[in-house]
Write a structure and sequence with these properties.
eight-stranded mixed β-sheet, 2-oxoglutarate dehydrogenase complex component E1, metal-binding, 4 domains, alpha/beta, mitochondrion, calcium, glycolysis, single chain
Length: 1016
């Protein structure tokens, strides 16, 4: 008997010929269909039960008995058993014994049943067939003809590539091939028929699961979803195309193929990462977009690596061909600011009519660096933002499509991180269609060396995404699968994967020689007929098109390319702005004129400050029980409001609340941000008596305020920061913040910082206002909970340390020229101002804030309302305001510092009674460097030595960035000494005593001129 356990572990589907061969090895048994059983219903024997009973009713009872013999009356059970055991007609029926019948009589009445051989044979056969059907559904893709080259090296570990002749037919024999079996409800191969001969069952299963499409879906734990997929692939004749659809597919293949051939003819020595070997990608994407448009989607956001990007830009996004071709002209100069990027990294935004649905559709292809999968979470974040801003709570209007390479999909962990965001409430985009261009090679690395899983797509199984493998040399199979994928996403709003199993006709790029490393593969590829040629020959043989029509289609597109190429020669300048993937219409102008390079006061009137403070210290929902400890925190907040002071958390609350009143959406994301890692924020209150009942007071501030989104993220930095970056791309009128649990942890998101945030505007003319909150401070917490690595951010700043800028409107204009803003605030008020300034500026720049830990509750880290009222603003530098500033000529040294160390320095200065001798100046904005203000400070103390003091080690922190700029500020008139920790490999010690010793040494050096001269 074929059992489910054996099927799940070993069974591989067989072909019809293999079925016959295997079945012939078993002894025959008498087949029993319902029609054959009807001869047993002789009038004499069966009349007591069949009289007045319809044949359909009996047939239903028979099939119910097959599934569960106890589901029918005992008399029917005896009848069916005897009939299937081979009892002669007229003898199968046994009258039920009377109630007074003795046990011996009852035993005699049942003796026929017990005497018949193979009484359970039919039941066993039906179970075997059901298990066989399930085996095809589970493992049919193992022997599907997926590889166009016929050399697939996919290894399934527990099942060999060749089918074993001893697998799968436990008790079935040759005569069973023509035996009719009732089909279970978990298959649709019967169409309108409920029973089929075994031979036809196997044939239909092979057609559904073992041809050019391999379906992985049986791991999905939702019956409705599994049934939906079965229906799409098992229903007989479901994959049919009209002649018009075939001609459209051919035309799309012509465009895809001839575009690559045109580029090869014109620029044979240029890298372009062409699509040769997977030209079917273009009709695949267009099919997904067509079907999605038909389902109501009007905005599609896409991300992809470089292979085929130019083709997608030309034939899917519909970028002007001359704009693509002019990118190949090495003589053209860039007209826009920034460095630009290579042509196969650029993005695009375009709104056009979809000719299939006659509906408007917007397409955005997000720019991506060579870090192939890095754009995945960025695309998802941008998609989420677009859904949010248009009120699309179910993903019916806005969707994402992500393209992947096979090696990158399997090898890069960001794919896994992005999948794990797919169903989280604050991150879901309600389903993404993933398309894998499966070259079966990664650069020069074979799959067996590149991954441990059979398929590159196995990572998608973690979120129960169905995976459709398809032979890319069968265009109709590809188009059908893409239609199903788009329908799946529209129906269930969950991720789905299309695996285009193809090949790469050239090397990694057009200049690469693949025969060095994959000689056998590329010998086969050289013999491979292009998919366009194969499909054209097929349609010509079918009479769908003729040879002249096919050649005319080719000539028509070639002419389009030639004319665009001629126009491209008229281009004199490269305009990077033509490649924007996220335009912000109307933001950069005001009443048709460019916005003024000014920033208004970031202060707020006292009524608003008081109101926000009162809400922040209360629970604006009735019958809501909060934790007792939180009650004390809210009470303390209320007392601060009465005293017109704020701490760090309240300053943040007031900045957020004021922007919400002005219609600015705020989104704060990261690990534990709702409460705050250091239990200081508490933006989400939890009812202590009702599970999952929460309250966000920030959303109860004003009648018509913008929404506030605060969401704890998954334990991911790379994926979540990329997501928030994408969210911030969508609109300039939102404050999007990502907070690291500890500042150190941003290092696992370094790719997003290095490739998108730091150079984004220079490479892609893409402004972005994302804010990074990085808790930072040396407090004896060890090397992984101390430093946010400010030296890394400062090293990537684009201001020149040797040039003193000559600018009007210095503070704003300098911000406009920089690539990002780096600050380390020492007061809550300054933190309040820098958050508000981020939105009130007439442009957007990334903002890096080194936020405190111990200062969150430091009694001296408080600000007065007076520092936040109208007319106040962010202070790039906070000068000394004590006795030293009253007599600057008497000051012997000026300590320049930033952040928390200021409080250590002031405490030590007071203890040493040196307030009149040493001035302490805080640099709140490190980049762009406040040359103008620090020049004023240096000139204020003419006789003083200049010292940079930091708590970080000398080879870390700010010193290497600050020193040359300070020297430029004072025209190198004096040395700039160093006071701080010595160079070290680790950011901080893990020993508390060592930490305190280092801190005291730092302070001794800062206030002992001879000591720091020796150390510098």
């Amino acid at each position: 008997m074929l059992n489910l356990r054996t099927c799940a572990a070993k069974l591989r589907p067989l072909t019809a010929s293999q079925t016959v061969k295997t079945i012939s090895q078993h002894r025959p048994a008498a087949p029993r269909t319902f029609q054959q059983l009807r001869c047993y219903s002789a009038p004499v024997a069966a009349e007591p039960f069949l009289s007045g009973t319809s044949s359909n009713y009996v047939e239903e009872m028979y099939y119910a008995w097959l599934e569960n013999p106890k589901s029918v009356h005992k008399s029917w059970d005896i009848f069916f058993r005897n009939a299937n055991a081979g009892a002669a007609p007229g003898t199968a029926y046994q009258s039920p014994p009377p109630l007074t019948t003795s046990l011996s009589t009852l035993s005699q009445a049942q003796s026929l049943v017990q005497a018949q051989p193979n009484v359970d044979k039919l039941v066993e056969d039906h179970l075997a067939v059901q298990s066989l059907i399930r085996a095809y559904q589970v493992r049919g893709h193992h022997i599907a003809k997926l590889d166009p080259l016929g050399i697939s090296c996919v290894n399934f570990d527990d099942a060999p590539v060749t089918v074993s002749p001893n697998v799968g037919f436990y008790g079935l024999d040759e005569s069973d091939l023509d035996k009719v079996f009732h089909l279970p409800t978990t298959t649709f191969i019967g169409g309108n028929e409920s029973a089929l001969p075994l031979r036809e069952i196997i044939r239909r299963l092979e057609m559904a699961y073992c041809q050019h499409i391999g379906v992985e879906f049986m791991f999905i734990n939702d019956l409705e979803q599994c049934q939906w997929i079965r229906q799409k692939f098992e229903t007989p004749g479901i994959m049919q195309f009209t002649n018009e659809e075939k001609r459209t597919l051919l035309a799309r293949l012509v465009r895809s193929t001839r575009f690559e051939e045109f580029l090869h003819r014109k620029w044979s020595s240029e890298k372009r990462f062409g699509l040769e070997g997977c030209e079917v990608l273009i009709p695949a994407l267009k099919t997904i977009i067509d079907k999605s448009s038909e389902k109501g989607v009007d905005y599609v956001i896409m991300g992809m690596p470089h292979r085929g990007r130019l083709n997608v830009l030309a034939n899917v996004i519909r970028k002007e061909l001359e704009q693509i071709f002019c990118q190949f002209d090495s003589k053209l100069e860039a007209a826009d600011e920034g460095s630009g990027d290579v042509k196969y990294h650029l993005g695009m935004y375009h709104r056009r009519i979809n000719r299939v649905t006659d509906r408007n559709i917007t397409l955005s292809l997000v720019a991506n660096p060579s870090h192939l999968e890095a754009a995945d979470p960025v695309v998802q974040g941008k998609t989420k933002a677009e859904q949010f801003y248009c009120g699309d709570t179910e993903g019916k209007k806005v969707m994402s499509i992500l393209l992947h390479g096979d090696a990158a999909f399997a090898g890069q962990g960001i794919v896994y991180e992005t999948f794990h965001l797919s169903d989280l409430p604050s991150y879901t985009t309600h389903g993404t269609v993933h398309v894998v261009v499966n070259n079966q090679i990664g650069f020069t690395t074979d799959p067996r060396m590149a991954r441990s899983s059979p398929y590159p797509t196995d990572v998608a199984r973690v979120v129960n995404a169905p995976i459709f493998h398809v032979n890319a040399d069968d265009p109709e199979a590809v188009v059908y699968v893409c239609n199903v994928a788009a329908e799946w996403r529209s129906t269930f709003h969950k991720d789905v994967v299309v695996d285009l199993v193809c090949y790469r006709r050239n090397g990694h790029n057009e200049m690469d020689e693949p025969m060095f490393t994959q000689p056998l593969m590329y010998k086969q590829i050289r013999k491979q007929k292009p998919v366009l040629q194969k499909y054209a020959e097929l349609l010509i043989s079918q009479g769908v098109v003729n040879q002249p029509e096919y050649e005319e289609e080719i000539a028509k597109y070639d002419k389009i390319c030639e004319e665009a190429h001629a126009r491209s020669k008229d281009e004199k300048i490269l305009h990077i702005k033509h490649w924007l993937d996220s335009p912000w219409p109307g933001f950069f102008t005001l009443d048709g004129q460019p916005r003024s390079m000014t920033c208004p006061s970031t202060g707020l009137n006292e009524e608003d400050l008081t109101h926000i403070g009162q809400v922040a210290s209360s629970v604006p929902v009735e019958d809501f029980t909060i934790h007792g400890g939180l009650s004390r925190i809210l009470k303390t907040r209320g007392e601060m409001v009465k005293n017109r002071t704020v701490d760090w958390a309240l300053a943040e609350y007031m900045a957020f609340g004021s922007l919400l009143k002005e219609g600015i959406h705020i989104r704060l994301s990261g690990q534990d941000v709702e409460r705050g890692t250091f239990s200081h924020r508490h933006h989400v209150l939890h009812d202590q008596n009702v599970d999952k009942r929460t309250c966000i007071p920030m959303n109860h501030l004003w009648p018509n305020q913008a929404p506030y989104t605060v969401c704890n993220s998954s334990l991911s930095e790379y994926g979540v920061l990329g997501f928030e970056l994408g969210f911030a791309m969508a609109s300039p009128n939102a404050l999007v913040l990502w907070e690291a649990q500890f500042g150190d942890f941003h290092n696992t998101a370094q790719c997003i910082i290095d490739q998108f945030i730091c150079p984004g505007q220079a490479k892609w003319v893409r402004q972005n206002g994302i804010v990074l909150l990085l808790p930072h401070g040396m407090e004896g917490m060890g090397p992984e909970h101390s430093s946010a690595r400010p030296e890394r951010f400062l090293q990537m700043c684009n201001d020149d340390p040797d040039v003193f800028p000559k600018l009007d409107d210095f503070d704003v204009r300098q911000l406009y020229e920089c690539n990002w803003i780096v600050v380390n605030c020492s007061t809550p008020a300054n933190f309040f101002h820098v958050l508000r300034r981020q939105i009130l500026l007439p442009f957007r720049k990334p903002l890096i804030i080194f936020t405190p830990k111990s200062l969150l509750r430091h009694p001296e880290a408080r600000s007065s309302f007076d520092e936040m009222l109208p007319g106040t603003h962010f202070l790039r530098v906070i000068p000394d305001s004590g006795p030293a500033a009253q007599n600057p000529e008497q000051v012997k040294r000026v300590l320049f510092c930033t952040g928390k160390v200021y409080y250590d320095l002031t405490r030590e200065r007071k203890a040493r009674q040196m307030e009149a001798d040493v001035a302490i100046t805080r640099v709140e904005q490190l980049s762009p460097f406040p040359f103008d203000l620090l020049q004023r400070e240096a000139q204020k103390y003419p006789a003083a030595e200049l010292v940079w003091c930091q708590e970080e080690h000398k080879n870390q922190g700010y010193y290497d960035y600050v020193k040359p700029r300070l020297r430029t500020t004072i025209n190198r008139a004096k040395p700039v000494w160093y006071a701080g920790r010595e160079p070290a490999a680790a950011p901080a010690t893990g020993n508390k005593k060592t930490h305190l010793t280092e801190l005291q040494r730092l302070l001794d050096t800062a206030f002992n001129l001879d000591a720091f001269k020796d150390m510098a």
